[in-house]
Structure formats: structure tokens, C-alpha cells
Amino acid sequence: MTRYDDGAERTFVALPPTQGRGFAQTWWGRAWLKALEDAAMDTAQVKTGRRLARAGAVGAVSVRPGRITAVVQDRDRTAHRADVLLEELSDAQWDRFADMAVERSGHVAALLDRDMPPHLVEDAAAAGIDLLPGMGDLEPECDCGAWDHCGHTAALCYQVARLLDQDPFVLLLMRGRAENAVLDALQAHGCAPAEESGSLPEGVDAAEAWEAGHVLPPLPAPPVVGEGPGVPPSLDTETAPPLGVDPSALAFLATRTAAEAHRLLVEALRSGHDRQGVPAEPTVAQDAVRLAAGGPGPDAWDRLGEGSGRTREALAVAVRAWRLGGGAALAALEEEWAVEGDTLARARAALESAWEEDERPSLRARANRWTVVGAPHQLRLDHEGRWWPYRKEGGRWVPAGGASQDPATALASADLSTGDEP
């Protein structure tokens, strides 16, 4: 069968060595590695490949339809050509993919943002198109003579997982089409014939309009967002304030409200916002921390602390967490919960794979917190599976950095933290 754009090929320069981090940060990158790890007959070869990839032993990676190739060096510097084959999609499957993608504008927007949301893959699968490889789909070839995945092909797969994290179009190229060919096909399938759109009556009922959504006129352009929030009116007047009203606190509240409204508008206009869930309304205690993070005066700071049930010191630590990650970081600071079932299994697997065996720190677990034995460092797991680094200062655990999907990366940021107050 002929293939569309068979000559397409991309070559990626060799990536540098990496230590203390997972190879795949995105869910599709992890799915790629799962296809390798589930199918490999010899787990020792998979571990060898991971070590070689970490050491930077994989050379430039060539990606073309149906095949990835690289030269991988053993520890003794012997070079081997490693190839991994992946079945290309047929022309009919590509046509179905384009039809499916243009039905939901979010699919196209996600790809342009170098994102591959789960619902895109699920919709493709429903159309009979497997974008991500499954068990046994990654077929190895290596001049070392191995009949199954060897350390060289495994190393190549681990390195490609890093490329997939950066650009899911790499996967589509392996499946048979380069980025420009995919985008051209999406554009072609998304255009309605002029005579069809011109034949529609001026008015139709709601059901017909819904069915004919692909020929309706586009939505108006989104509003233009200014560079920053507006400035609230001045409260500096000669009139005495009413009893119980603090003008400085009121001015601060108005300023923070304008800033929050600007942030929400920017977020609403961000690509992919329509695919995000609606966050829960913050509690009074959480909103007090948000306001305190805006730098109020001493009196307002004390009022925010009292209103949220926190001391000045506790509010300062909460503000540090908020500045690192908003409500999620604050929850990691103040919530302690039991990690059980599948969540516990995934957490243990992440901790097991984050370090080489001789580099793994000794950790003592309690609830969702893992403390490094003999060091003032701690990891906290949130409900989204992310790890937050903590450091002990003055007898109190304080946030030491932003969240990471990889516990080794999070713990490294705790080690580097200077512990400065916000």
C-alpha cells in the first residue's frame, strides 16, 4: 500500500545525560514507555537501556514513518545501530483521523499546542485508530543480534520518550505523516464547500442549527486583554471613613480584586481552557492566603491571619506555599491524608524508579508524606500524583519548591532551597 509522505524524516541531536528524573513527564510519553516495559521479555535489558539513556549513550535519533533509528554505545564504547519499528496508519485511517479531529476544535488546538489530551486518543480509538503503541507494537531490530528488546533498543525508546514529551507530532510521524501533512489534511477536511454553506436558509430551528454546526459563521474574536489589571479609583478623600471601614485595607482589596479578574480573563482566553475542569470555589481560609500573598500592610496581614485561624508565622508559610503553586500547594502544606490502594502503588512505583538503586535515599512514610531519614527534607504527594518538596526550618516543615511528577526532581529542589521567606 502506498503511503502519504513516505520521504518525511526528522533527525534530533543527541540529548545530554540526565540524572534523577523520569524519562517521560507527559501521560503519552509514559504510555510509550509502558508499551516497551510491558512487552520486553528480559526486564534486565530494559534496566540496561534506561542506564544507557541516562548516561547519554544514545546518539542522534532519526524518526521517519514506521521506524526510529539511533546509534547506541555500550559502556565499553562499542557502537550498535538500534531500530524500533511501529506500524504506520493506512490512508483510510488517516482520513478518519482528520474527520474525527476537525469535529472537535479542541483536538486541533491541542495538537498545535504540542499537547495530546486523553480524549483525542480516546476519540481516535473509537474511530479505529490506535495512535499510541500497545504491548508488542514496538518491534526491535539491533545489529547486536538480540531477538527481543536489548539494552540498545530499550535505550532508544527511553530517549524517544523525552522527544515525545516535547512534541507529539513525533508520534504522528512514526505513524506515517509529518506535521505539515497532518495540518494540511486537517485544513482540507475542515473546509465546508461554498455552495453547501450558501444553500442554507437564513433561519433554521435549533436542532437543524446544531446538526449544521460545521457551516455556521465563526464566533466573534475574543476580547483584547490589557497588559495588566486596571487601577481602582482612589479612596484618598478628605471625607472621614465610616466607622469600622479601613480605607487602606479597602484599597488593597480593590487592587487584588482587579488583579484576580485580570488573571481569570487571561486564563479563560488561554488555548485549551475549554477542556479544563471548573475549579472549586476557595474557602475563606484559602482566600485569606491568596490576599496575603498580594502584600498587604501589617494591619491587614494580622486581620487575614486572625480571620483564617493562622498565626503570623503560619500565614507566612502558607503564603510561601501559595506563591509556589496556588491552592494545590496550600493543600499539600495543610492536608494530611492516607495514601491507599492504586494511589499508593503508583507512588511506590514512582519512588522505586526515580533513582538508581545505589542513589535512592532512605525514606520514612507517614500518610502522604515521605521524610528522608537523616536529612531535613520531605516529599509530599498531592491528589493529582505530584510531589512537593519540603525542608525543615526552625522545627517547622516549609515548602521548598514547586511540584514535580518525578520525586527525584522534587527532592533535588528541596536540597537546593535556601529557605528564604517570601
Task: Quickly describe the structure.
This protein has 16 helices and ten strands. The protein has 422 residues and is of the alpha+beta class.
Radius of gyration: 27 Å
Q: Quick one: overall form?
A: globular
Output the number of helix runs: 16
Q: Mean pLDDT across all residues, rounded? A: 83
Are there runs of 5+ residues with pLDDT below 50, and where? 1-6, 191-201
| Strand line-up of the largest beta sheet | 1-2-3-4-5
What do these coordinates show?
The chain is α+β, with helices and mostly antiparallel strands and 422 residues long. It is 45% helix and 12% strand. The chain has 16 helices and 10 strands. The chain has helices spanning 27-39, 43-54, 91-103, 105-112, 118-126, 151-166, 169-174, 179-190, 194-198, 206-211, 247-268, 284-292, 298-307, 312-334, 341-354, 407-416, and strands at 10-12, 61-64, 67-73, 79-85, 139-142, 363-366, 369-372, 377-381, 387-393, 396-399. Strands 1-2-3-4-5 form a 5-stranded antiparallel sheet. A 5-stranded antiparallel sheet has the order 6-7-8-9-10. Strand 9 and strand 10 form a beta hairpin. Helix 2 (43-54) packs across helix 6. The chain is globular.
